[in-house]
Design a protein that fits this description.
The chain contains 8 helices and 8 strands. By secondary structure, the chain is an alpha/beta fold. The strands form 3 sheets. The protein has a 4-stranded parallel sheet. 35% of the residues are buried.
């Protein structure tokens, strides 16, 4: 029996079966919105898969306590903008549960560098000395990855374990229960999620992915200034895209 292998779930005492109910450790407003998802078979399969991977000594990113970091920093009713990524970084110390973000001590990866370049082109804000996007999340930028975990060194390795069913439900919940959210969909994968969003209620901005593999097509999309214009038009406080 395994106890405390991953911290996103509060297991019942170790003498109980892993099939017993668990309580997901996630911010309370999100817990209320997503409560039905946690009892569905696919979510139990995600949980059991991660536990099995830990038993097999696989290294999973991000650390268990950070898997729901985006939810914990940006409560449901605080979401103003959604930036959708695909899956977490799969290198050591990179993933922190926020799409595109890395801890301060980790050099920004190429996609994040291009995001900073576009912010400079768009708003004249110089690139920061780090890649930690927590400040954006605190202002209401929900930095969601479609897959919330990945195996070390294996990009996309958890695409089919059930996370997409969960994060699709997350996107649909935002679309159904909120109004005027700005969704930034960068790249073909993110753009496949547009069908989950009611575009009569929300704003969807699409562009190429910021990865260098997309060439220069990400640049000059002006998504950062356009996002703020859309927020201001609704009487909302714009995002300060500078990072302290």
């Amino acid at each position: 029996m395994v106890c405390g292998l991953i911290h996103i779930f509060k297991l019942l005492p170790c003498t109980f079966s892993l099939l017993m109910p668990v309580e997901v450790q996630i911010e309370e407003s999100w817990k209320a919105v997503l409560k039905d998802e946690f009892d569905k078979p696919y979510f139990q399969q995600v949980r059991q898969f991660l536990i099995q991977e830990k038993q097999n000594n696989k290294i999973i990113y991000p650390p268990g306590s950070l898997i729901f970091n985006a939810f914990n920093i940006t409560p449901f009713n605080n979401v103003k903008v959604v930036i959708l990524g695909q899956d977490p970084y799969h290198g050591p110390r990179q993933a922190m549960g926020l799409s595109f973000s890395v801890p301060r001590e980790v050099p920004p990866p190429p996609s994040l560098k291009n995001i900073f370049k576009e912010i400079y082109n768009d708003l004249g804000i110089a690139p920061p000395g780090h890649g930690d996007l927590t400040y954006w999340a605190e202002q209401g930028v929900f930095l969601l990855n479609a897959m919330l975990t990945v195996e070390r060194g294996r990009a996309g390795s958890h695409q089919k374990i059930g996370w997409q069913e969960f994060t699709d439900a997350v996107i649909k919940s935002i679309s159904d229960q909120r109004d005027g959210i700005v969704f930034l969909l960068w790249g073909r994968f993110a753009q496949t999620k547009a069908n989950l969003i009611d575009q009569l209620k929300h704003h969807v901005l699409e562009s190429a992915h910021p990865s260098p593999l997309a060439g220069n097509r990400f640049f000059n999309n002006h998504h950062f200034s356009r996002t703020n214009e859309l927020l201001l038009s609704q009487g909302r406080i714009p995002i300060d895209w500078r990072l302290p």
